[in-house]
C-alpha cells in the first residue's frame, strides 16, 4: 500500500514529457478586454449544485458543530450564548470569501497586463489541466500549490478561468484582507482570510474548521491552500502545516464525502519577483507590511524581466485510495460526528503523511532551471574566488553540463530548452540574474551592492556585507534543486562518515540523518527504507556505487558524484554540528528560521549571519558569538537543535 | 424480494382468481410421488384445524409450480416477445399479460444489454449432475416407522439446496450443482418435528430447516465440509392456522405457512397480521422468526419481534416455549430473542402465536416527487420526528425513479398518455425539477377512511415544506409493484448478461445521505476497478423509518459481458459495498440476516463477548451441531 503512490511516481516520470503550452502566447494575440469578458462555462460538480456565499455562511453558522462549541465557549467565558454567536458571526464575516465572476474578470484583465509584461511565457501542462477538469466534476478538489511568491496567489485562478474550470476558493493570510481595496478584490476573487496567530482561540478554530469542512462537503468549487503555510523565503519546500490539512480531510474520514482529490501544483519561477526582498528579509530587514500603497510602490518591479513561469498540475491523488489501511473510519461511528472532539493520533498521522506526500509531489513536479544548477555549483566555489578572482566561465559551463546529466539521471524535470546551444542557455540564465552575478572577462563574479560613500577604509566584515544579498540569493536558487539530490546526498554523506559499506549500517545512518533533517528537507514519515533504496538505485544508475545484497560500495570514478553530493549537503551537516558559528549557515537556509524570528533579533544579527556564511575562515569575535547564541538559540527550536546535536555526537561521533 | 400482489381493494378480485388457480393446481397434482411416503394423519393435532388446510400455495413438490433456477412461479416471467417488446407472462399478477414498452430501452441504456446478446440458462435440471445422496440407513429406517413423508429424489433435494443469492441462482442456470441435502422430510405437525429431531440426534445426522427458500444470505447452502447425512426439514406442510382468539386478537399458527396463505386465510375471517415482507408470496412464518424479518407496513403493525407473542421451537435439548401469553414479561432476558434471528442453528420453529388485526377499512396509495434525494430524506426524517409515518413510506432515488418509469405498462388511451406528458411538463418545466435529480416517495395509508384522509393531508403538508409535490396514487402503487417484480426482472437480466442483487442496512438518520452516496459511489468505483465493461446500475431507496434511523436498500446490477468470472467480480463488489456500509455506520443487516454470507463481520458487529454469549447458547442447546447449517456464528 505504501508503495502505491511511489509506483504512481514512476509512471509519472515515464510519461513525464507532457506537453507544455505557453498560455501567454494566445493572450498576446488577443485583446485583454475581450479576454476578460470571455464566456466562462465550467462543468458543474456532479454531486451538488453550486451554493451562494450567503447560503454557505448560513450553513456554517447554523451547523450543529458550531452550536456545540458556542455553548461550550459561553460557559467557559461566562457569556450568553447570543454574545458568543455574535462573535462567531463576526469571525465568519471577517473570514468568508465572496467569489464573484465579475471580479474574476477584473483580476484576469489586470493579470493579463501584468503577466505579459513580467514573463516571457507561462507554461502549463495541458494534460494536468484536463485531469483537473475531470476531477472537479467527480469529487471535491483541493488545489495545493507550493508557495514561493505573491504571484502564486491568484495565478491558479487565472489559469482556471481561461480553461473553464471552476474558480477556486483560496485560503489567504489575514494581512492581505487589511489592504485597502485590494483586500476586497481578493475576497471577491475567492479568497478567504485566516488569522496568523490563532493560538488557543477555541471559537476561531471552530468557525474556521467548520468553514473549511463545509467548503469541502459542498464541493462545488475547488479549495486552494498552501500546505507549507506561508511563502518559503529560502525557495526550499517547508514542512507542511497540518491544521488546515486535517480540516480538509475530516469530511472524508467521517464519510461526509465519498472521496477528496488532492491536486499538488508546482509553480516554478526562473526568477522570483521578490528575490531581493527575500534575501533582505533573511538578512534581517523586516518584511514590509502588506499594503495597497506598498503594492503600488512595488510597481517598479514591473519594469524588469523575470523569465518564464511553469505551472505544473500534478496527478490527482485520491484521498480514499491513499488512506486505505491508514485510517479506520469505524471510529467515527459511535459518537455524533459533529461533536467537537480532538482528532485521533491515527488521523493526525494520516494527515501528516498526506501533507508530506503532497509537498514531495510538488517538489517532483517543479521545473529545475539551469540557473538553479549553476547556483549549486557556484556555492561550492570559495567565496573569495567569486568576489575577487572570478570563476572562469568555461569551467562553470563544463560543471553545469555535468550536473545537468546527473540531475536528469536522478529524474529531475529540467527546464533546459531544446534546440538552443547550451552556452546560450547558460548565458541567458546568467543575464536574467544579473542582479546576482556578472560576467567580466570570461569570468563570473558575485554582484556587490553599491558601496556606501567611503570616507574611511571599511572593515573586512563590511566588505562581505556587500555581497551578502547576492550570496544569499545564490543559496536560495540552489535550494530550488536541492530536493533532487538530497536523498542520494544523504547516502553519500553516510558512506563518507561511517566509512562503511554494509547496507544495514548505512541505512541506519541514513535514517538518522533523515531524522535530524526532518525539518530541513521533506521526507515522508515512515518511508525511510524506500527513500534509501531509491537513493541507492539512483546512485547506482549514475555509476557512483555498486550495490549487492549486503553492501553498497563506491564505484571506480564514483567519487566525483559522491563528493559533489556531500559538498552540497555539507553546510547543513556543519550547521547541525557543534561549532556555533556554522549554525548560522543552517539558519540562513533553514526552514527553522523564519522571518518572525528575525524581526525580534535582526539588528545584531545581520553582520554575523553574513560573516559566518561566507566562510569558515572568517574570524568572529567572542562577543558576537555569544550574542548570536543568546539571540538565536534562545528561540523555540533550541531544544530540538540541541537534541539533534547530542544524538549526532553520541551515536555517531563526527570526526 | 417480492411483495404481495394483493394490496388494495382493487386487487381483491385478482387474489380470488389467484386462489382458484392454486386450488386447480392442487387438484391436478399427482397423488404422491415415487419416493415420497404418503402423509399419515398427524396424531398430535388432536382437534381439527381452525381454518381448512386445503387451499395452500406451495405443494410438497415445489417443482410443480415454481422455477428450479429462478424466482417464483414457473408461469410468470419477463420475456421479449416477437416484436422485441418486454412482456410479463402468466395470469397471477396485475402486470401479467401486459406489454412494458419502456423496458427494452431501459435495459439497453442502463446496462448496454441488447437482444442480440443472450445468455441462455440450462433448460432443465439434469438429475445425473446431482451427487447421489449419502443416506444414514439407520435413520431412514426409523424415520419410515414414524410415517413422516420423505424423499431422496434429486429434484426435491436440489430445490432445497439454495436460497436466492446471485451466486446460487447463477450456478443453477449454468447447471452447476454443489453439495445438496441428502434427503428431504416433510413433517406435518409439531410432534412430527419432535420425532425427526430426536432421530437426528440419535443417529447424528445434520438438519437444515427449510421454510420458503427465499433466503438471500446463503443460509440454506449445505456446508461443503459437512460429512454427515444432511436432511432438509421442509416445514411447508405445517401450514394451518390452529386457532384464532378474537378476544385477545391473536392467532396460533403453524410455522410453515407462507405469507400470502396466512394473509388470505386470516382475511377470510376478517383479520390480517399486517406483516408484509417483500418476499411474502413465498417466505414462511418460521423463516420470518428465524431471521428477524421486517414487514413493509411495520409502522402500523410492527416488525416480527413486535408481532410475536409465543414461539414453540424444537431443539436437540427438547422443546422451548413460554408458559403464558402475557403481552410483556420481566423474566430475565427474553428467550424469544435467542430464537428470533437464530437462522436455523438452534432448532425448528414449529408454532407461533402472533398478533392479528381486523382488516383495515380503507387503503390508499400515494406518492410525492421531490426535487432531489436530499430533500426527500429530510422529509422522511421530519415525518419520523413527528411520528406520523403512514403504514409504509419509501423514498426511491433518481435511478430507481427512472427504473420505475421504465416498468410502466403500455397505456391504452391517448388521453392517459397525454395526461402523463402534461404531468411531466408541469414537474420538470413549470416547477423546475431536474429530471436527473428528482426522486419520488411512495406512500401507503391504512385505517379508517376519515383518519386516512386526515393522515394523508398531514404527510403531504410536511412534504410540501421540503419542496415535495403530490404525484398521485398510480405512481405510488407502481412503486410497490416494483418490489415484487424486481426478482422476476433479475431473471430477465440474467438472460441478457446482466447480474445483480439487492442488499440492505439500517443506519442513524444523520448518516442516511452519506451512506447512500458513498455506497453507490463505491459500487461504481469497484466495478470499474474489477474490469466491468459497462457502467453498473447502483441505486438505493430508503424503505423504513424509525425514531433513530432508517432502513436503506441498495440495488446493484451490471452487464457482465467480457468478464471471465462474473460471479466472483459480483461478490467482490458486494463485499466492498458491505465494508463501505459498515465504515459509514450502517448495520450488518436490517432484516435479511447474516447466514453464511455476512458471517465474517459478526464478531466486530456484536463484539467478542457477544459472540461468546451466542456460542454458549448454541453449545448448550445443540452440543452435537445437529442443526449444522453453520449460519451466523
UniProtKB/TrEMBL annotation, chain A:
GO CC terms, sorted: membrane
Subcellular location(s) per record: Membrane
Keywords: Acyltransferase, Membrane, Transferase, Transmembrane, Transmembrane helix
Transmembrane segments: 153-178
Functional pathway: Phospholipid metabolism
Highest rank taxon of the organism: Eukaryota
Family from the record: Belongs to the GPAT/DAPAT family.
Protein name per Swiss-Prot or TrEMBL: Glyceronephosphate O-acyltransferase 2
Start and end residues of each Phospholipid/glycerol acyltransferase domain: 141-270
GO terms (BP aspect): lipid metabolic process
Short name of any one Pfam family annotated for the protein: Acyltransferase
SUPFAM superfamilies: Glycerol-3-phosphate (1)-acyltransferase
Coiled coil location: none
MF-aspect GO terms: O-acyltransferase activity
Automatic annotation (TrEMBL), chain B:
EC number(s) recorded for this UniProt protein: 2.5.1.26
Gene Ontology terms for molecular function: alkylglycerone-phosphate synthase activity; FAD binding
A cellular component annotation (GO) from this entry: peroxisome
Reaction catalysis annotation: 1-hexadecanoylglycerone 3-phosphate + a long-chain fatty acid = a 1-acylglycerone 3-phosphate + hexadecanoate; hexadecan-1-ol + 1-hexadecanoylglycerone 3-phosphate = 1-O-hexadecylglycerone 3-phosphate + hexadecanoate + H(+); a long chain fatty alcohol + a 1-acylglycerone 3-phosphate = a 1-O-alkylglycerone 3-phosphate + a long-chain fatty acid + H(+)
Cofactor: FAD
Enzymatic class: transferase
Biological processes, Gene Ontology terms: ether lipid biosynthetic process; lipid biosynthetic process
Alphabetized Pfam families for the sequence: FAD-oxidase_C, FAD_binding_4
UniProt keyword list: Acetylation, FAD, Flavoprotein, Lipid biosynthesis, Lipid metabolism, Membrane, Peroxisome, Phosphoprotein, Transferase, Transit peptide
Residues at the active site: 553
Annotated compartments: Peroxisome membrane
Lipid biosynthesis among keywords: yes
Positions annotated to bind FAD: 209-215, 291-294, 343-349
Pathway it works in: Lipid metabolism; Glycerolipid metabolism; ether lipid biosynthesis
Subunit structure: Homodimer.
Family: Belongs to the FAD-binding oxidoreductase/transferase type 4 family.
Its biological purpose: Catalyzes the exchange of an acyl for a long-chain alkyl group and the formation of the ether bond in the biosynthesis of ether phospholipids.
Name assigned to this protein: Alkylglycerone-phosphate synthase
Amino acid at each position: 500500500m505504501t508503495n502505491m503512490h511511489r509506483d504512481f511516481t514512476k509512471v509519472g516520470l515515464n510519461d513525464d514529457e507532457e506537453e507544455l503550452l505557453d498560455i501567454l502566447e494566445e493572450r498576446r494575440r488577443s485583446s485583454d478586454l475581450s479576454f476578460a469578458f470571455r464566456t466562462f462555462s465550467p462543468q458543474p460538480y456532479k454531486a451538488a449544485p453550486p451554493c451562494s456565499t450567503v447560503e454557505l455562511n448560513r450553513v456554517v453558522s447554523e451547523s450543529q458543530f458550531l452550536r456545540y462549541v458556542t455553548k461550550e465557549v459561553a460557559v467557559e467565558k461566562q457569556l450568553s450564548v447570543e454574545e458568543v454567536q455574535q462573535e462567531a458571526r463576526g469571525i465568519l464575516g471577517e473570514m468568508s470569501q465572496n467569489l464573484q465572476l465579475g471580479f474574476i474578470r477584473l483580476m484576469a484583465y489586470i493579470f493579463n497586463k501584468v503577466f505579459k509584461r513580467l514573463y516571457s511565457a507561462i507554461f502549463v501542462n495541458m494534460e494536468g489541466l484536463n485531469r483537473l477538469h475531470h476531477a472537479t466534476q467527480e469529487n471535491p478538489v483541493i488545489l495545493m500549490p507550493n508557495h514561493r511568491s505573491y504571484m502564486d496567489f491568484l495565478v491558479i485562478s487565472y489559469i482556471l478561468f481561461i480553461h473553464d474550470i471552476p474558480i477556486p476558493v483560496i485560503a489567504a493570510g489575514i494581512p492581505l484582507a487589511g489592504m485597502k481595496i485590494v483586500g476586497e478584490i481578493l475576497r471577491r476573487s475567492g479568497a478567504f482570510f485566516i488569522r496568523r496567530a490563532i493560538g488557543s482561540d477555541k471559537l476561531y478554530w471552530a468557525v474556521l474548521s467548520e468553514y473549511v469542512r463545509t467548503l469541502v462537503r459542498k464541493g462545488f468549487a475547488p479549495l486552494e491552500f498552501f500546505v507549507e503555510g506561508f511563502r518559503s523565503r529560502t525557495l526550499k519546500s517547508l514542512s507542511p502545516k497540518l491544521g488546515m490539512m486535517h480540516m480538509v480531510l475530516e469530511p472524508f474520514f467521517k464519510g461526509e464525502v465519498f472521496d477528496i482529490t488532492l491536486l499538488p501544483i508546482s509553480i516554478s519561477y526562473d526568477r522570483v519577483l521578490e528575490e531581493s526582498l527575500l534575501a533582505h528579509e533573511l538578512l534581517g530587514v523586516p518584511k514590509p507590511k502588506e499594503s495597497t500603497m506598498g503594492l503600488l510602490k512595488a510597481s517598479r518591479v514591473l519594469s524588469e524581466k523575470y523569465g518564464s513561469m511553469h505551472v505544473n498540475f500534478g496527478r490527482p491523488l485520491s484521498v480514499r485510495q491513499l488512506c486505505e489501511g491508514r485510517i479506520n473510519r469505524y471510529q467515527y461511528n459511535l459518537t455524533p460526528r459533529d461533536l467537537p472532539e480532538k482528532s485521533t493520533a491515527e488521523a493526525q498521522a494520516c494527515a501528516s503523511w498526506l501533507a508530506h506526500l503532497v509537498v514531495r509531489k510538488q517538489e517532483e513536479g517543479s521545473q529545475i532551471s539551469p540557473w538553479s544548477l549553476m547556483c549549486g555549483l557556484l556555492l561550492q566555489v570559495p567565496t573569495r574566488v567569486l568576489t575577487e578572482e572570478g570563476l572562469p566561465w568555461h569551467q562553470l559551463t563544463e560543471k553545469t553540463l555535468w550536473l545537468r546529466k546527473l540531475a536528469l539521471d536522478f529524474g529531475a524535470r529540467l527546464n533546459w530548452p531544446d534546440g538552443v546551444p547550451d552556452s546560450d542557455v547558460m548565458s541567458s540564465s546568467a543575464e536574467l540574474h544579473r542582479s546576482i552575478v556578472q560576467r567580466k572577462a570570461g569570468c563570473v563574479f558575485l554582484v556587490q551592492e553599491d558601496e556606501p560613500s567611503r570616507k574611511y577604509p571599511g572593515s573586512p566584515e563590511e566588505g562581505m556585507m556587500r555581497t551578502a544579498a547576492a550570496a544569499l540569493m545564490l543559496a536560495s536558487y540552489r535550494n530550488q534543486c536541492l530536493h533532487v539530490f538530497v536523498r542520494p546526498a544523504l547516502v553519500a554523506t553516510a558512506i563518507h562518515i561511517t566509512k562503511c559499506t554494509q547496507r544495514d549500517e548505512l541505512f541506519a545512518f541514513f535514517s538518522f540523518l533523515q531524522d535530524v533533517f526532518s525539518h530541513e528537507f521533506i521526507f515522508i514519515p515512515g518511508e525511510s527504507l524506500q527513500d534509501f533504496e531509491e537513493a541507492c538505485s539512483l546512485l547506482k544508475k549514475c555509476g557512483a556505487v555498486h550495490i549487492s545484497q549486503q553492501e553498497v560500495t563506491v564505484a571506480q570514478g564514483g567519487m566525483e558524484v559522491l563528493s559533489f553530493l556531500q559538498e552540497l549537503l555539507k553546510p547543513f551537516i556543519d550547521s547541525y554540528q557543534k561549532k556555533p558559528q556554522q549554525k548560522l549557515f543552517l539558519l540562513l537556509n533553514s526552514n527553522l528560521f523564519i522571518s518572525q524570528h528575525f524581526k525580534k533579533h535582526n539588528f545584531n544579527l545581520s553582520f554575523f549571519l553574513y560573516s559566518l556564511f561566507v566562510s569558515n575562515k572568517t574570524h568572529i569575535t567572542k562577543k558576537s558569538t555569544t550574542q548570536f547564541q543568546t539571540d538565536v538559540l534562545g528561540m523555540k527550536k533550541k531544544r530540538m537543535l540541541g537534541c539533534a546535536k547530542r544524538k549526532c555526537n553520541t551515536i555517531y561521533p563526527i570526526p | 424480494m417480492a411483495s404481495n400482489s394483493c394490496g388494495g381493494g382493487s386487487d381483491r378480485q385478482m387474489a380470488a382468481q389467484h386462489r382458484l388457480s392454486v386450488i386447480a393446481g392442487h387438484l391436478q397434482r399427482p397423488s404422491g410421488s415415487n419416493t415420497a411416503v404418503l402423509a399419515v394423519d398427524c396424531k398430535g393435532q388432536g382437534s381439527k384445524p381452525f381454518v381448512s388446510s386445503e387451499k395452500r400455495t406451495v405443494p410438497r413438490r415445489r417443482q410443480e409450480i415454481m422455477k428450479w433456477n429462478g424466482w417464483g412461479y414457473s408461469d410468470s416471467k419477463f420475456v421479449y416477445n416477437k416484436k422485441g417488446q418486454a412482456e410479463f407472462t402468466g395470469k397471477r399478477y396485475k402486470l401479467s399479460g401486459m406489454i412494458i414498452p419502456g423496458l427494452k430501452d431501459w435495459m439497453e441504456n442502463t446496462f448496454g444489454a441488447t437482444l442480440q446478446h443472450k445468455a441462455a440458462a440450462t433448460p432443465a435440471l439434469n438429475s445425473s449432475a446431482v451427487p447421489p445422496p449419502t443416506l444414514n440407513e439407520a435413520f431412514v429406517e426409523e424415520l419410515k416407522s414414524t410415517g413422516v413423508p420423505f424423499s431422496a429424489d434429486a429434484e426435491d433435494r436440489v430445490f432445497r439446496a439454495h436460497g436466492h443469492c446471485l451466486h446460487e441462482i447463477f450456478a443453477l442456470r449454468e447447471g452447476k450443482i454443489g453439495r445438496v441435502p441428502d434427503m428431504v422430510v416433510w413433517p406435518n405437525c409439531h410432534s412430527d418435528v419432535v420425532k425427526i429431531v430426536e432421530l437426528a440426534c440419535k443417529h447424528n445426522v445434520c438438519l437444515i430447516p427449510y421454510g420458503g427458500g427465499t433466503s438471500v444470505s446463503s443460509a440454506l447452502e449445505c456446508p461443503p465440509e459437512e460429512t454427515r447425512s444432511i436432511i432438509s426439514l421442509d416445514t411447508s406442510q405445517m401450514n394451518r392456522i390452529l386457532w384464532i382468539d378474537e378476544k385477545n386478537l391473536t392467532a396460533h399458527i403453524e410455522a410453515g405457512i407462507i405469507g400470502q396463505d396466512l394473509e388470505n386465510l386470516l382475511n377470510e375471517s376478517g383479520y390480517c397480521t399486517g406483516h408484509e415482507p417483500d418476499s411474502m408470496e413465498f417466505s414462511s412464518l418460521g423463516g420470518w422468526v428465524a431471521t428477524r424479518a421486517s414487514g413493509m407496513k411495520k409502522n402500523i403493525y410492527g416488525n416480527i419481534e413486535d408481532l410475536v407473542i409465543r414461539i414453540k421451537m424444537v431443539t436437540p435439548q427438547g422443546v422451548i416455549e413460554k408458559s403464558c401469553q402475557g403481552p410483556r414479561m420481566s423474566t430475565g432476558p427474553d428467550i424469544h430473542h435467542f430464537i428470533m434471528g437464530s437462522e436455523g442453528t438452534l432448532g425448528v420453529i414449529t408454532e407461533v402465536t402472533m398478533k392479528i388485526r381486523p382488516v383495515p377499512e380503507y387503503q390508499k396509495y400515494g406518492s410525492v416527487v421531490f426535487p432531489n434525494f436530499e430533500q426527500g430524506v429530510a422529509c422522511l426524517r421530519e415525518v419520523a420526528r413527528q411520528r406520523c409515518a403512514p403504514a409504509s413510506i419509501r423514498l426511491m432515488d433518481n435511478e430507481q425513479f427512472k427504473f420505475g418509469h421504465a416498468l410502466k405498462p403500455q397505456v391504452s388511451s391517448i388521453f392517459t398518455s397525454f395526461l402523463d406528458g402534461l404531468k411531466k411538463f408541469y414537474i420538470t418545466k413549470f416547477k423546475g425539477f431536474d429530471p436527473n435529480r428528482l426522486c419520488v416517495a411512495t406512500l401507503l395509508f391504512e385505517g379508517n377512511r376519515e383518519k386516512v384522509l386526515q393522515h394523508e393531508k398531514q404527510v403531504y403538508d410536511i412534504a410540501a415544506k421540503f419542496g415535495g409535490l403530490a404525484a398521485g396514487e398510480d405512481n405510488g402503487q407502481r412503486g410497490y409493484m416494483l418490489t415484487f417484480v424486481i426478482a422476476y426482472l433479475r431473471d430477465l437480466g440474467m438472460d441478457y448478461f446482466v447480474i445483480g442483487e439487492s442488499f440492505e442496512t439500517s443506519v442513524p438518520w444523520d448518516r442516511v445521505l452519506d451512506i447512500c452516496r458513498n455506497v453507490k459511489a463505491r459500487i461504481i468505483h469497484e466495478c470499474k476497478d474489477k474490469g466491468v465493461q459497462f457502467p453498473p446500475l447502483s441505486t438505493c431507496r430508503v424503505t423504513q423509518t424509525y425514531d433513530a434511523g432508517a432502513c436503506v436498500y441498495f440495488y446493484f446490477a451490471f452487464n457482465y459481458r467480457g468478464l471471465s468470472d462474473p460471479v466472483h467480480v459480483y461478490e467482490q463488489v458486494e463485499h466492498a459495498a458491505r465494508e463501505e456500509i459498515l465504515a459509514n455506520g450502517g448495520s450488518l443487516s436490517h432484516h435479511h440476516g447474516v447466514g453464511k454470507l455476512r458471517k465474517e463481520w459478526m464478531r466486530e458487529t456484536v463484539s467478542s463477548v457477544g459472540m461468546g454469549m451466542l456460542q454458549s447458547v448454541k453449545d448448550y442447546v445443540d452440543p452435537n451441531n445437529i442443526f449444522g447449517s453453520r449460519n451466523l456464528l
